[in-house]
Backbone:
């Protein structure tokens, strides 16, 4: 590669300089580090927003004292945590994108595995809790009725 670069430089009459000669590598490394910081910051902001959203759901559920409020709180927070984990994983990948060592690659693999596993289990738990919430809000055997379904039944009885 260096031979090819040297040949190109000689052919171009020295007009094309090596990236290391003009500081391009240092600039790219610094840009990637800034990008990594921005992505990590976004992940932290998402977690903060999730905590505020979950706290608002918690406060709202305390006023109505409904048991399913607990599941809604967990579901709200877990959505934000799952998204933040994706941002944090992206930041970790960016940190190894610039001249990674085997130690950094090993750390990334461990972190990626842990965060992916966390994300998988969060997604699985969110799916279960969403199904539980949906089951709780559906009318069951006449004990809980939805107002809109009651109006539909009345309209259907008038038509027939």
Residues:
């Amino acid at each position: 590669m260096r031979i090819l670069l040297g040949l190109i430089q000689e052919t171009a009459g020295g007009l094309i300089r090596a990236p290391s000669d003009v500081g391009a590598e240092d600039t790219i490394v610094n840009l990637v580090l800034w990008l990594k910081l921005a992505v990590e910051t976004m992940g932290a902001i998402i977690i903060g927003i999730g905590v505020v959203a979950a706290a608002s759901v918690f406060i709202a559920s305390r006023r109505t004292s409904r048991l399913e409020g607990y599941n809604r709180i967990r579901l709200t927070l877990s959505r934000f945590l799952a998204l933040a984990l994706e941002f944090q994983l992206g930041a970790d990948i960016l940190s190894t994108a610039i001249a990674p060592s085997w130690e950094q690659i090993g750390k990334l693999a461990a972190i990626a595995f842990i965060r992916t596993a966390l994300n998988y289990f969060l997604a699985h738990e969110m799916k279960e809790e969403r199904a539980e919430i949906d089951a709780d809000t559906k009318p069951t055997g006449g004990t809980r009725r939805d107002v809109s379904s009651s109006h539909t039944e009345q309209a259907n009885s008038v038509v027939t």
Q: What stands out?
A: Residues 33-136 form one domain. The radius of gyration is 27 Å. Residues 98 and 156 are 67 Å apart (CA to CA). The chain is about 80% helix and 0% strand.
